[in-house]
Amino acid sequence: MKKVIFDTDPGIDDTMAMLLAHASDKIDLIGITTIFGNATIENATRNALYVKKKFGLTAAVSMGTDTPLVREAGEPTTFVHGDNGIGNVQIPEGDLGEKDNRAAHDFIIDQLKAYPNEITLIGVGRLTNLALALQKEPSIAKFAKEVIVMGGAFGYNGHSGNVTPFAEANVLGDPHAADIVFTADWPVTVVGLDVTHQVKMDQAYMEKLRNSSKKYGQFIYDITRFYVDFHKNECQLDYFPVHDSSAITYAIAPELFKVKKGPLRVVTEGVAIGHTMLKTSGSAFPIDNWSDKPVQTVCVDVDADKFLELYMDTMSA
Ligand code: BDR
Ligand code: CA
């Protein structure tokens, strides 16, 4: 079992991914750290606690930051995830349980040190908490087993951005943090729009999931209604692409993904801000801001049918 800390901004697809991690017998979810993005930091943390209580997760929930390293935070993307960040499903009043008393980046530092080379960090929101952890304690890079990120877009399969033509939401939300995380000396795998847009959940799939997953099906169906409407009305899609669960699926079954390797950088200013760029060639250049950075892994294709089967089977077991 992989020990996982899940850094997330729940978030409808974040919640689907969190439940996949919880349901999988390949993952031991030891921590959930929250980040501003799809919801305010208060709502993202409340949603994580709610899901933890409702489904009996044992992971600690630690609240992260609402402030990107350099950029303005902007508003939460409630037009995609609903005002409460979780599709506007009713969240019961009352005690949802205590969060961990450490800030998310301190929780990450402590856990990486407590379990050297055992923890997989999975980030599916802005990467600010991970960058803060690296800035405060650079030595943690050598303690992480693996870092998996849902974010970015490299132009494979025709996908290069979802907020601008060349930037994906999580990376654009804090491009400086993403560049720090991608260039740190730990093994990073990025699962970007190049593959998340290849995996599509449509109405027939969601109905089948609702019926076959006795434990999670109805809840996932309910929280995704808002998300389905957004994709139908604003993007003219009769399905939604599967973003955050792609990072969890990579942790469970990396063999479903095709990858390319090379150093990778993020554009942190100007018209292409948030653009992620992978250098795959070994060529030498007179000026090269990639060549002294570590080689990382980028997913460029996925077996979508097997992925969808894995999600259905894991949630229905
Ligand atoms: C990413 O942005 C967020 O809205 C989703 O939760 C996902 O992490 C997709 O660009
Ligand atoms: Ca997310």
Poorly predicted sequence stretches spanning 5 or more consecutive residues = none
Note the quaternary state here.
Answer: single chain
General shape: globular
The main sheet orders its strands as: 3-2-1-4-5-6-12-9
Question: Keyphrases for this structure?
Answer:
317 residues; alpha/beta; Inosine-uridine Nucleoside N-ribohydrolase, Chain A; eight-stranded mixed β-sheet; two-stranded antiparallel ribbon; 12 helices; globular; binds beta-D-ribofuranose; binds calcium ion
Characterize the structure shown:
With 317 residues, the chain is of the alpha/beta class. The chain has one domain: Alpha-Beta Complex (Inosine-uridine Nucleoside N-ribohydrolase, Chain A). Helices cover 38% and strands 19% of the residues. The protein has twelve helices and twelve strands. The chain has helices spanning 12-23, 41-55, 78-81, 104-114, 128-136, 169-173, 175-183, 193-196, 203-212, 217-235, 244-252, 304-316, and strands at residues 2-8, 27-34, 60-62, 119-123, 144-150, 188-191, 200-202, 239-241, 257-262, 264-266, 276-278, 296-302. Strands 3-2-1-4-5-6-12-9 form an eight-stranded mixed sheet, with helices on both faces. It has a two-stranded antiparallel ribbon with strand order 7-8. A two-stranded antiparallel ribbon has the order 10-11. α5 (128-136) links the parallel β4 (119-123) and β5 (144-150). α1 packs parallel to α11 (244-252), α4 (104-114) packs across α5 and α5 (128-136) packs across α7. It is globular, with a radius of gyration of 18 Å. The two termini are 17 Å apart. The structure holds beta-D-ribofuranose and calcium ion (CA). Calcium ion is lined by residues 8-9, 11, 14, 38, 124-125, 244.
